[in-house]
Amino acid sequence: MDFGTLIRELSGGMLISIEIFVLTLVFSLPLGLAVAFGRMSKIKPVQWLAKIYISIMRGTPLMLQLMVVYFGPYYIFGIRISSTYRMTAVLIGFAINYAAYFAEIYRGGIESMSVGQYEAAKVLGYSRPQTFFCIIFPQVIKRILPSVTNEVITLVKDTSLAFVLAVAEMFTIAKQIAAAQTSMVPFVAAGIFYYVFNLIVAVVMEALEKKLNYYR
Description:
Elements: H1 3-40, H2 44-59, H3 62-77, H4 85-111, H5 115-123, H6 128-158, H7 170-181, H8 185-212
Helix pairs in contact: 1-2, 1-4, 1-7, 1-8, 2-4, 3-4, 4-6, 5-6, 6-8, 7-8
């Protein structure tokens, strides 16, 4: 099998990997911010719930979480699951896992802001939501971007874990072709894909960092 044919064979899996990557970010970034608010809440039950959630998500393997999300509805509630639920389960598992990591990144950024900025905004007549979203949050984004970049790069590689629920992402298809052809070439192609994907992500995030580096 020539390299062009191999790429065509892998293209469907590549699109699935990209879909998992994009949708995970779409759901996990705002969810992570909500969890960060819960983690910093002055309401103790909310704070403890957020702490427990973050602890479980960061303390257990993503592969295990994917299996719980997929098989849990049947074994816990007796709800029949179909093959069409596989992709949904993958997205739910990835989103709730990465939201926990993003929550701690957000929290670190928010808590690094000086109290004086909140006080100055109050004197100027800003409401609490206005203070956060107009003054604090833009600065937080700039500060946490390197940490977010690390998580996003990890996410690119973690998309291969979708194989545990038999979702035919790129690495799964590469394994199938490698087994059928008894060749390592599909794995090399998969490695190139992940490297190029991560390179694009790194370049985009670096450009964003430079754009936000308004002190220069």
